[in-house]
Specification:
The chain has 147 residues and is mainly alpha-helical. It has a single domain, classed as Arc Repressor Mutant, subunit A, CATH 1.10.10.10. The protein contains six helices and two strands. A two-stranded antiparallel ribbon has the order 1-2. A hairpin with a 2-residue loop joins strand 1 and strand 2. It comes from Streptomyces enissocaesilis. This is HTH marR-type domain-containing protein. Pfam families: MarR_2 (PF12802).
Length: 147
Amino acid sequence: MNATGRDLPQLLGDARRWFEDALLATLDEAGAVPVSPTQARLFAVLDERGTTVSELARRMGVTRQTAHQAVHGLVADGLLEQVPDPASGRQRLIRRTPEGERAHHRAGLILARLEEELAGRIGREAVGALRAALEAPWGRPPSLDRA
């Protein structure tokens, strides 16, 4: 039995929210353009050369409509832009504007500081072990037989 009675996906979700909440609060205190947690996750999965809304939705695990709404808000704030996809006349790529690149860089610096803060709280060795476990190749998700 685990100590908290909570399963690993719940704990991983809480850990993600810890970083997300601290990132958004730090950006807010710095006077950055306010973004939602969904918009912050979208920024994290965006390719340098641009990504389609459908691919963003798949990477984020949300509907295409949710991804489109997040993109629309970030475009309106001047952080993202839509450009024609050179590989497809029908699709558009979403990419960061210069201001979006600056915001993405700032977020990366904040996340690195948060990782240091976490190491101070739970120990550098624990953070290293957590990182190693999450970076290890897990393989394709299994389809387990009914128990």
